[in-house]
């Protein structure tokens, strides 16, 4: 974890982004080619299939006998991230992790990424180096190769677009459309932490803006803040499924909250589902933060976002193989389409999943 010392967080962010910093090399002084030289200096390659990385008109990848899986995500300053509390290094890491997560959600192995950035003159060479430090750490963690991209200027703000490329045997690919009635709905890890981390950071930003001398109250909140600033893609599960000799019948990564991801699987698979609130995996720290903000933790699980865990379905007969895996929670079942999507609350009430009446709290945080 390279999370900063949180109490000095906002001050440090201000220094990195401000013009007062002693060491600041303007992008116009090094030019586009100078910048590309800088950002490729620490790039390492891990994949045999990468025949040519950065440095030519196009990268060259050895097309294996497997299927190629491709996914792109764009992150826009002010829409998807706020640099007043998102360190550039974390942002670089997150940009790679969220794309790798989409590849993992297909039950595929990520191999290469390309990174395209648009930068305003507010950014210095040192800022771009910070961003690429995070990108390179993520590439090393997930063993993916940064093989190219594009660099251009923007009028204001920062835009990062990442494309991730992966491979899988055709028979191992997990689509959103494969769930069948009777199958078990599973999630990895715990949910809701990233949303509570965002709430905390937003609150502390307001405090900081009204009084820069105030000490951020982020003590004991490292877990949820870390879930927001540095999410991990569950590539480990792709390997675990392989070891168990099972294939999820459907799968999706949880970027927008559990409710909407369940709906995606149900819509694409033409099925219904039932979820049990009491089965939702929530970390202690998330529970505590939700209590501080007077939000029911299940609301955060269902409608928060950015946890990047996996939601998937397995056949009943595969349950025995995975039931002791501490990374997996069994949260419900797939039903016939006509039954719709239902939630059984802790009080044993049955409520339709789409009509919670709590979507009001999900502000326009994405799109
Ligand atoms: P071209 O003019 O052919 O588009 P560029 O000068 O833009 O080439 O890029 C030169 C090389 O640097 C290419 O291999 C390209 O993929 C790579 N590259 C450019 N920008 C980035 C970036 N932001 N991140 C990673 N690689 C990049
Ligand atoms: Mg180019």
Spatially, the strands of the biggest sheet line up as 8-10-7-11-9-12-13
The hetero compounds bound to this protein are: adenosine-5'-diphosphate, magnesium ion
CATH-assigned fold name of the largest domain: Phosphoribosyl-aminoimidazole Synthetase, Chain A, domain 2
User: How large a portion of the residues is in β-strands, by DSSP E?
Assistant: 15-25%
* Count of alpha and pi helical runs: 11
Low-confidence stretches: 1-5, 357-367
What is the class of the largest domain in the CATH system?
A: Alpha Beta
The tally of beta strands, per DSSP, is: 13
The CATH superfamily of the largest domain bears the name PurM-like C-terminal domain
The structure class reads alpha+beta
Terminus-to-terminus distance: 29 Å
Main β sheet profile: 7 strands, mixed
SSE series: HHEEEHEHEEEHHHEHEHHEHEEE
Helix content: 25-40%
Rg (C-alpha, Å): 21 Å
Instruction: Give the domain tally.
Output: 2
Oligomer: single chain
Which geometry do the CA atoms define? Answer: globular
Q: Indicate the CATH architecture of the largest domain.
A: Alpha-Beta Complex
